[in-house]
What does this fold into?
Amino acid sequence: MDIRFNALSLTLRGRPILHAVSGHLQKGKVTVILGANGAGKSTLLSCLSGLRAPDSGLVLLDDQPLADLTSIVRARRIGLLPQQADIHWDINVRALVALGRLPHQGRWSKWGGKSAGDDAAIEKAMAQTDCTQFADRKALRLSGGEQARVLLARVLAGEPDWVLADEPLANLDPAHQMDAVSCLKDVARGGAGVVLVLHDLTQAARVADHVIIMKQGRIQAAGRCSVVMTPDQLADAFGVSVHIGSDDSGAPIITPISRSG
Amino acid sequence: MRLNFGLGIALIIALLASLMAGRTWIPFDQWLSGDLRSMIVMELRLPRACIGALVGAALGMAGAAMQGYLRNPLADPGLFGISSSAALGAVTSLYFGYTVSAYLLPVFALMGAGLGMTALALLAGRSGSLILFTLAGVILSSLTGSLTSLMISLAPTPFATAEIITWLMGALMDRSWQDVWLAFPFITLGMGLLLMAGRNLDALTLGENAARSLGVNMVRLQWLIVLGVGLCVGSSVAVAGIIGFVGLVVPHLVRPLVGHQPSALLIPSALAGALLIVLADSFVRILPSTSELRLGIAMAVLGAPFFMLLLFKMRREVA
It folds into this structure.
């Protein structure tokens, strides 16, 4: 029950984005991908979600090549929250969250009605992300942070085996960042694999079971948080020196101090 | 559902009223009397009303699908250049003065639409990319538009020029059952394809990447839209000429009533489009004037103030 990716390489518009990237993601764990802007994090995520085919290399979902799955089967198993929070029409929040159920519904389900399972999953996802209170409001009237929660609910409503999210905490206030983190942790504890691209080092250190640090299209380091998130590694990846402390409970606090050239 | 039901009832009433209305008023009890009046109803007004409803439904649904696909409330089914390629086909037959058969002009128009769809698919390629697709549509519509202008300027006789210009304005006068049976299969097929795209259009609300991650096949969706819009718009142009604004205005009016969901918009837009054209066509028929006002012009005259209202409303919301 895992995703393995082997020697993924990808060149876009003559610019190499990924160089022979390999790794292993486990279900039931939270994996965080870290790296500076342009390190290839989002591209790796879109390869792992099956939206982008690498030039060479293979992504295996439970030992089966991802490219061999039909788009519907893939959509049932892998939920993706893209970086860009697109909501193009002013539809109801509940209708928006219900879009997450699309891979489970037939083409004509619109006319056949939703199943009870669909409704239960939608309500549960909205409760998990604290969206139930605005279930009947219009999506475009919500604030950016509220929209981000609704979009996360959309992914969770599909009950995928894997949740891949590109910067799910951007736009969230501190309280809802914590909520989102604990929600994603719960999802992982529930047995699903969670893969996040994050920029906040402290949040990353607190949520991650497994960390992948990327630099210039390669994996610089991967492993347990305490092993990988060291001052040296972070300085190398981001070009900043960091201070690593801890709060009263012993949880890490990682603060960038200065550019280290 | 309630909205569809209401629009359906309104459409039936409008259709019945349009059979009575015209230069001579023909009440219900004389429709089957067997004299000249019943001839007018059965052979002139009934096919005309049917074509009006078909064309209105096709344009309404095509507009709703286009707006959903491009995620732009200002998209118009004419944008892809399929209506102008159909028009080019029709104008070609007028240019050469092919009048041997009444079928010839609509068949040429359908061929034009078919060629337009092929060109669009070839230009856009197999990427399923929205931007390439829109660009291809713009190229196609400007190319076919200028070729049509060329035909007008080079027309062999002033008569042909006048005929082409009049035809381009769009109208439903003197349509026969032949036209109904020609357009019906293509339009129903096109609308069926667009209905199949419904849930995919909903998924596009979340953007292209999220839609693809939900299992939407963008290439398949592009084909559904090209064929669906092409069949609807191409056969509408073939039997009624170019009638603008319906595909743009109708989805706009209906959208708030269905909670803005693209798939829920398709059927009500078709019904409302049919209703609008049947009403507008009855209106141009009963206007007291020596020669009948062209429906295409009437729609444009109606459409412009509508957009002005929309603009004022948007200005209030922005302010």
In short: DSSP finds 13 helices and no strands in chain B. The longest helix of chain B spans residues 36-70. The two ends of chain B are 35 Å apart (CA to CA). The interface with chain A takes residues 68, 71, 196, 198-199, 202-207, 209-210, 212-217, 259-264 of chain B (CB under 8 Å).
